[in-house]
Amino acid sequence: MGSLENGSDEPLTPAGRLFLQKEMNQVIYCAIGMKQPLDVDALKLAIQSCPMIMHPRFCSLLVLDSAGREHWRRTRVDIDRHVVLVPGPIVEGLSDEGAVNEYLADLSTDSPGLMGDDKPLWDVHLLMAHQCMVLRIHHALGDGISLVSSFLAGSRQVDDPEALPTIGPPSSTMRRRSDGGGEWWKAVVRVLEVVWFTVVFVVEFVLRTMWVSDRRRR
User: Fold this and answer.
1) How far apart are CA 174 and CA 164, in angstroms?
2) CATH number of the CATH domain containing 63
3) Is 25 in a helix, a strand, or coil?
4) Which of 17, 90, 111, 118 lies 20 to 30 Å from 3, alpha-carbon distance?
5) The domain containing residue 212 runs over which residues?
6) What is the C-alpha to C-alpha distance for residues 91 and 76, in angstroms, rounded to an integer?
7) Could you read off the pLDDT of 168-206 as tens digits, one per residue?
8) Whether 85 and 133 share a structural domain
């Protein structure tokens, strides 16, 4: 991390400082598969013009003041330093999904590689042989909702390049649900479904936390 030199730097939020602690060091990974081969130049241009990358946190360095407190300092983003090109297959003989999972497993052990005072805390990995793009973003840059919202703001629908993407079922589906969802028993069923899946996910999370481990760290 660099040292603090001017008064225009912005302090980190308490949550951002928490995510930077050695005990936490939270990094977000997002793998996006493509139907077509990756066009590196087009992707660099799209990344550079994406509203998410224009956000101040994505073009700021992490610096320290004299008391050791973290601050953000605006800088110029060199897109070539943030795009990592991986031309060949990750592992021979594996499916694309398996190879990408292997790459993510290796990348997750290198999360300290995101830290430093030479560039903002994010990068994009282009797995050319597997037609996959991996985003690696430090959680100190934002929470899940803000990051997803920023990412979607820079995306467009395939059938309508001017339209923003939508999340959730089509409006016709929502309309059918609202028209026929007045019966009390349907509401009860929905509540029971929510309770059931919540219990299942919590139990699965606890079991994974207690017994599942990464073989690379044994």
Assistant:
1) 19
2) 3.30.559.10
3) coil
4) 111
5) 169-218
6) 35
7) 655 554 455 555 545 778 888 989 999 999 999 999 989
8) yes
